[in-house]
Amino acid sequence: MAPGLTEEELGRIEATYAFEFSPEHRTFLAAGLPVASPPEEGAAWEQPWPDWRHADPDDLRDRLEWPVREVLNDVAHGSWHPALGPRPTSMGEAVEAARAVLAQAPRLVPVYAHRFIPAGRATPGHPVLSVWGTDIICYGHNLADYIDREFGETDENTP
What we know:
By secondary structure, the protein is of the alpha+beta class. The protein has helices at residues 7-17, 23-31, 57-76, 91-104, 143-151, and strands at residues 108-112, 115-118, 128-132, 135-140. It has one domain (7-151).
């Protein structure tokens, strides 16, 4: 753990990358900045924790663009959710239709590897989502729940 991000650093990051950290993500990063752990097998990044203080800006942009890029890649290869309506006949139209829907969704901000939390200060308590293409699952009801589940001690007797 490195010292937490200052208000000035948090504001600079939000202005540079055009998003707002959720209240709980902001508090977490201000308390301490996780910077090192072994990468997961098949990980997209060598360092799973985004280093908001020292990372190459292209690395942070890549992480921020990951969820949309991965979903659109799956759509381009045939994936389609019925909630999007009828799938357009051409791949290009399908990708553009999915892109339009995703543009309306809150931006996802990387927490760890391919785990993300929705951006925005207006509504705290967002779930942490694992995003691997269109395989999107909830990894925690909120950031504290996610951290506990992913990194906390487990009691084998607890269901």
